[in-house]
Amino acid sequence: MGRITETVKALIIINVLFFVGKMMMPDAADKLLALYYFENPNFHFWQPLTHMFMHGGVSHILFNMFGLYMFGSPLEARWGRNKFLFFYFSAGLGAALIHSLVGYYQFHSVFESLLQAGLNETQVNNIIATGSYDTSILSSVSADKIQSFYEAYYTPAVGASGAIYGVLVAFGLMYPNMELMLIFLPIPIKAKYFIPVLLLFDLFSGLTGFSLFGQNIANWAHLGGALFGFIMAYYWKKNSFNDSRWN
Question: In sequence order, what are the beta bridge partners of 189?
């Protein structure tokens, strides 16, 4: 393990402070700082930023902060503080954008299906408000789709995972032959192989709803952070970006 860099250390400390604050006021913190669907009354304009410092549990924050330390420190050492911070927050905001766009599609596609099934807007809004519905509509719209519709509206996203995925992809581009090891598979795998496989797992889970790593994982946020991270890191690498302009 290498030396932890100063900006990465500061980000980890801020995440831990947010986590402690959430433990003291869990409901209030989530309602105010987690990322809600943007048509939900609980959405606030600062949530795409603040949700990056919120985490769902001890294992969640431990994995994310370990990833930030392992992959973020080499990038900060290579790029410098300002460029790394720009990258980190851009990847996190990109993750929030993709997550929200997918949520919009999931919500409105089912909303339209319910209208086509014969419900009016008042009845659909009642499903949103109560989560209950007449089972006769299941012949037109599946229970799974109605559940995803309801969850897209109400379930907030938390965590630095989107930003971390951006960092992970950038690390793979900068150090493709660096060997990494999975905790559950202690075999060295080069970054250029490990990271695409990890992204394929997220893509599979996002498309099918089946996850090998547990439920309530924002797969599209992971992929969004990875996409924005890839675009920035690829551009900087190919164009020999001048680091001094960020100092």
Answer: 180
- Looking at residue 178, its amino acid is M
Query: Phi-psi bin for 34: left (phi > 0), alpha (psi -120 to 50), beta?
Result: beta
What would the pLDDT profile of 155-206 be if each residue is shown by its tens digit? 999 999 999 999 999 999 999 998 887 655 667 889 888 899 889 989 998 8
**Whole-structure pTM value:** 0.91
Using alpha carbons only, give the angle 61, 67, 70 rounded to the nearest 5 degrees. 135
Provide the 10 A C-beta neighbour count for residue 230: 19
In angstroms, the first-to-last Cα distance of the chain is: 26
For residues 72 and 187, give the distance between their C-alpha atoms in angstroms, rounded to a whole number.
22
Kind plus residue range of the DSSP H or E element containing 182: strand 179-182
> Is the pLDDT reported for residue 3 higher than 80?
yes
> Helices (DSSP H) in 34-159: which residue ranges?
47-50, 58-67, 73-79, 81-116, 121-130, 143-154
Is-contact 177 192, C-beta < 8 A?
A: yes
Contact, 246 vs 182, CB < 8 A? no
Beta-bridged to residue 179, according to DSSP, are 190
Which tokens in the block code for residue 19?
Answer: 């986590």
Write the CA distances from 30 to 20, 95, 131, 223, integer angstroms: 13, 18, 21, 23
Please give the DSSP secondary-structure letter assigned to residue 121.
Answer: H
